Amino acid sequence: MDFDDSTEDRAFREEVGAWLDRALADVPDQEELSQDEREAWSRTWQDRLCEAGWAGLSWPVEHGGRGMDALAQAIFNEEAAKRGAPYPLNGVGMMLAGPTIIAHGTAEQQARYLPGILSGETYWCQGFSEPGSGSDLASLRTSAVKVDGGWLVNGSKIWTSNAHNASMCLLLARTDPDPANKHGGISYLLAPMDRFTVKPLVMINEDTEFNEMFLDDVFVPDSDVLGGVGNGWKVALTTLAFERGSMALNLWVWARQAVDRLVDLALERGRCDDEAFWDSVGALQCDAEAVRIGSMRMVAESQAGGIPGPETSALKSLWAGVVQNANRMAVQLDEAGGVLLDGDGAAARMRRYLRARAHTIEGGTEEVQKSILAERVLGLPRSR
Amino acid sequence: MDFDDSTEDRAFREEVGAWLDRALADVPDQEELSQDEREAWSRTWQDRLCEAGWAGLSWPVEHGGRGMDALAQAIFNEEAAKRGAPYPLNGVGMMLAGPTIIAHGTAEQQARYLPGILSGETYWCQGFSEPGSGSDLASLRTSAVKVDGGWLVNGSKIWTSNAHNASMCLLLARTDPDPANKHGGISYLLAPMDRFTVKPLVMINEDTEFNEMFLDDVFVPDSDVLGGVGNGWKVALTTLAFERGSMALNLWVWARQAVDRLVDLALERGRCDDEAFWDSVGALQCDAEAVRIGSMRMVAESQAGGIPGPETSALKSLWAGVVQNANRMAVQLDEAGGVLLDGDGAAARMRRYLRARAHTIEGGTEEVQKSILAERVLGLPRSR
Amino acid sequence: MHATFTRDQQDIAATVRAMVGDEKTGARAALDEGWSAPSCDAALLEGFSGLGVAESAGGPGSSLVDLLVAVEALGASLVPSRFAAHAAAIQLLAGSGEVPEAALEGQQVLTGAVVVPGAAGWAPTAGGTTTRTLVAHAESADAFVVAGTDGVRLLDRASVEVRQRESFDPAVPLADVTPTADGELAGAGEAGLQRATLVAAAELSGVAQGAIDLAAEYARNRHQFGRPIGSFQAVAFQLAEAVAVRKAAWDLSLYAAWAVDNARPDAAIQVHAAKAAAGKAAVFAAERCIQVHGGMGITREADPHLFLRRALVLDASYGTGAWHRRRTGALRVADRRASA
Amino acid sequence: MHATFTRDQQDIAATVRAMVGDEKTGARAALDEGWSAPSCDAALLEGFSGLGVAESAGGPGSSLVDLLVAVEALGASLVPSRFAAHAAAIQLLAGSGEVPEAALEGQQVLTGAVVVPGAAGWAPTAGGTTTRTLVAHAESADAFVVAGTDGVRLLDRASVEVRQRESFDPAVPLADVTPTADGELAGAGEAGLQRATLVAAAELSGVAQGAIDLAAEYARNRHQFGRPIGSFQAVAFQLAEAVAVRKAAWDLSLYAAWAVDNARPDAAIQVHAAKAAAGKAAVFAAERCIQVHGGMGITREADPHLFLRRALVLDASYGTGAWHRRRTGALRVADRRASA
């Protein structure tokens, strides 16, 4: 059990650090920006990653990547996060679409779609959830009807990050309306978005990270079915595994930052020298560090050839708790319980508190994470 | 909305108080006694209640009671608790057996059994739960087979308070092994205990409040079926309603005492002048008072002719939380985290902490209380 | 003991509910367009301002519980009426026995000013020219009741400076209010503060109830895995816990109101306990309401966040929930120390 | 980075598990008859006392993680061996580099003495004749390692007075130990305290795991309402939460051991975090284990309370969980203040 960088890791970390220092020189503090400005910087940042060849960091060399492993990606993300780098705007392309197409795509699909992700030309989004299918993803109803040469897709999707910037969608649709089991009959389509109607969803903190998408006779050619007709559920599980893996690389940083901000605020207000505060921060610190260490162990397991296990759900659950509690405590430390938004920094704190309410919902609800732990770690019978 | 005693209530409270002061003059502090000593005093106390005519306080006059209402019983219990009176040893007889027989018994059954309870001659216990039937009471398996003139009962019961002192049992048994629905086929028997084998169950705090009972060809005559063959479930619900009602009259006192003990310990240790302690005690105080006030409202509703609603489950749940948390905090306040049992008062504190773990299990588990709130207050669909 | 609602109290609740209807539209509209008086505002002010005011103070001799019952019903609907703020201000004055007739008739609209910026609890004095914060509906108020533990002052608009603040719940506009001059105090401040604080506790109890009702309705109707999500214990038990916490808050509020009206020796601790419990219940219920709504819960277009906004604003008002909880604990310790 | 268990570490865990078998019988027997050495006691002492001891201290050059892996496996089984107390005492000495060979061979059985009565955390000094409390297995120990943040002393039985106390977990007998004279200190106390404290954290992580395993097994097999109770979310999710909390504790313990072994700048805060988290995990898991067992859980004849006993004793030992949590927070604040 060794948590230190190997010699090569250290060299890579230095290489990454040096590049980041240069590439971030003109990038302002993202926390201070409006959502629009943040998004513009995310796009610029994506371009810089692509230009420098970081976009395919952990993709195999034969697909244009650098062929490095999950640890290298973790090191890159960690160094970027330390420096407050923007979030790359085509994360779905780099982290989900690329790896899934590499895993399940035909040579032709790989040749058609991978270069656009590496070059930064094609942005992707993930069309899985539907208004009627949240935690119960397999109940999705978007229908794909066979037509000459392809499929005609109709339906709606929801909670789609970045849909307004994407031109391609990882789309789950039902190609068999009456399958023998509910996971059957789903296919995974690589869908062009020119006939999608995208409507931003305003969140309770006024941000518009997510979208609703309406599909009206979207045509997807047969050649863009990924992994074969009716095999969509299996392919989707691959994407979800990549999503969990890539989340875990970032989660701990957000948890640490939430605790940092809380402590900084308390320092500023002279409210951090009593035992009750130490007690609360101590509890947060334990869980935040547990998420960091758990992520390192997860990366090490993937690196050793294993697949991250269901314990990843414990990290997601701990993480959500840390950020929610730290952000709530920060609001409560604020003058007037944080409800006067024109107070110094109050609006941003309240926005973060509200944003964090979603952490027990997005990326698999808290209830879903606990079900995974119960069923797959403890072997308890299904409750649903 | 008026929480004050009426003039008559006040007069009754004074009458009760004067009697209690006399009757308790020679009774030692129950907290200082061994379990055996406490039990002996419980028996003595039961005798004094019977002699003075308090045993049938809220029973109708025609059945030998004083014909008073739930409020009078509440006043009596409150005044007794304030003075640290022992727990009467035939509580099951006075609070459950009597009222259930009054509600569902034939004139003959009433004449046969009620006088013994009022006189203190016959002690009762409640044979409902079984090793395989805890929260799922209706799955009970104790069988009653029809024989000439009555029923032959075999099976086992568990969690029976006071079984070793009782001579009669409120016994649920299955008179139809294959009923159309699982609540059918259960009958409610008034069973003599001379053929019961009673085995004490040692609890984790070394007390032996509860027993296991083994029934081997116990004969119950037809005349001792209460409420008719196959109607046992309905009769049992009556008993359970009386149980909830009588619990609520006592719960709040125990909650207050738990908080008292915690604060006294902190005062003794000089550990109660910081805001963190005030915060914790404040939270406990809120819930403890909520249990008291909720109980008053519940009594007032019964008095106004209504039946205590499912909100009673909220009181049970709050109460269990207060006592568990107060008792855990007390142990933690102790030197060495309470684990050195020869420390001053440490053993008693640890016993109470352990005893309180049962509060979320006995009298309907925490999970059962929440189900009741979910289904009967919120109208959510059954989860089981 | 008659610890049940009187027929009158049941009527009050029913009447208020009928008047406000489903006014969540008002709370939502305020988000986009700022506060405006709901249609029921004037009628509430005119019809109910005497609730909780004794005859000695010029009122109809109504109990504080009567008022709480009305405010709780308002809270559940989130109706953005000025009534609760006005009624709380009247209660600040009612402690001293001098409520202007125009205020009792709902013609002169009042609001209370009790928290000094940077402090968590009630102001120590009503005198001086110290600024008060978290003053609700100041922009449209006719007069201001500045209160501290030593008394109250009734100030007209000309005697204060009002600085509008940005409220997390735009349906409850908040302002800083600064008296321009010192002045004479009236009455016993503490009694008034207790009475007014319970008005906030009652509204919070209502907010908690409204959030629970909304979440339960969603849980009964939303299906996943072929079942209503309310049939999953993980969903159902969150709301069951909210029911218990909310019942605690409401029972404490009712009892505290009775204790204050009847000058019971435990009135002070009961008021603190009620406000602490009510803030906790409302915030908890609103957060659970969001969680049970899943993805919809974090959208602006769904209603759950409206409950959270109101809950947090009221939890901060008339002393934060955390302050009241600590006061509850401190009084309990003091009481026990005295009896030892 | 190789943040995975080495083959050696996997072997250690498997070997220990095989040696202890299902030794809960030992923990139970101690309740009635007092402590006696389990059959595996001598073999554990002889075979594993060198774990976690560097070559410079006369050991085989094994990492602290190696030792934690062994102790965690012991913790899960509740085996009443003296090994963990002995190993922790060796770690107190290992900080100073001087561990007697007889102790490393398991011939001289040690125990640590680090908490002064009335204090929640580590003793400030190893010197003087102040009594230490919560000393495990003192009655059968050959020598005592008295430790404070300023160093350690190794005292034989003749140099101390031992007063047996009544332990909540009779499988871990506890005593007060008083040095009869002052004496010279060796080594750096803090490093030793950190290493020893992590031994307790590892055992607590094991206790948590054992309680979770027991509860999960019961939940899979006990039926109510025609289903295994583990299929009810209310039951299952309690244990899922315990899994998350326990994973946090174990991951923190492993990382802290690595940080201490490698003299990382964050070693101190990581040790406090690990002990705080491990105590919380074990107590939580044991309480949930009782709850999931329903009525059986509160009987002496069922096993869940055995986990609670061990959890509470270890949570109190080597600094209470609450003390370590506050220290974690204080160090975090100090760190942030320094970097501001």
From TrEMBL, chains A, B:
Cofactor: FAD
Residue ranges annotated for the Acyl-CoA dehydrogenase/oxidase N-terminal domain, each copy included: 7-121
Domain Acyl-CoA dehydrogenase/oxidase C-terminal: 230-378
Keyword Oxidoreductase: yes
Ranges where the Acyl-CoA oxidase/dehydrogenase middle domain occurs: 125-218
Alphabetized InterPro entries for the sequence: Acyl-CoA_Oxase/DH_mid-dom, Acyl-CoA_Oxase/DH_mid-dom_sf, AcylCo_DH-like_C, AcylCo_DH/oxidase_C, AcylCoA_DH/ox_N, AcylCoA_DH/ox_N_sf, AcylCoA_DH/oxidase_NM_dom_sf, Mycobact_Acyl-CoA_DH
Protein's recorded name: Acyl-CoA dehydrogenase family protein
Pfam families, per database record: Acyl-CoA_dh_1, Acyl-CoA_dh_M, Acyl-CoA_dh_N
Record-linked Gene3D superfamilies: Acyl-CoA dehydrogenase/oxidase, N-terminal domain (1.10.540.10), Butyryl-CoA Dehydrogenase, subunit A, domain 2 (2.40.110.10), Butyryl-CoA Dehydrogenase, subunit A, domain 3 (1.20.140.10)
Family: Belongs to the acyl-CoA dehydrogenase family.
Annotated GO CC locations: plasma membrane
UniProt-listed PANTHER family: ACYL-COA DEHYDROGENASE, ACYL-COA DEHYDROGENASE FADE29
Entry keywords, A to Z: FAD, Flavoprotein, Oxidoreductase
UniProt GO MF annotations: flavin adenine dinucleotide binding; oxidoreductase activity, acting on the CH-CH group of donors
UniProtKB/TrEMBL annotation, chains C, D:
Acyl-CoA dehydrogenase/oxidase C-terminal domain sequence ranges: 193-327
Obligatory cofactor(s): FAD
Key words, A-Z: FAD, Flavoprotein, Oxidoreductase
InterPro entries: AcylCo_DH-like_C, AcylCo_DH/oxidase_C, AcylCoA_DH/ox_N_sf, AcylCoA_DH/oxidase_NM_dom_sf
Pfam families: Acyl-CoA_dh_1
GO molecular function: acyl-CoA dehydrogenase activity; flavin adenine dinucleotide binding
Family: Belongs to the acyl-CoA dehydrogenase family.
The protein, known as: Acyl-CoA/acyl-ACP dehydrogenase
Provenance organism: Nocardioides faecalis
Lineage, highest ranks first: Bacteria, Bacillati, Actinomycetota, Actinomycetes, Propionibacteriales
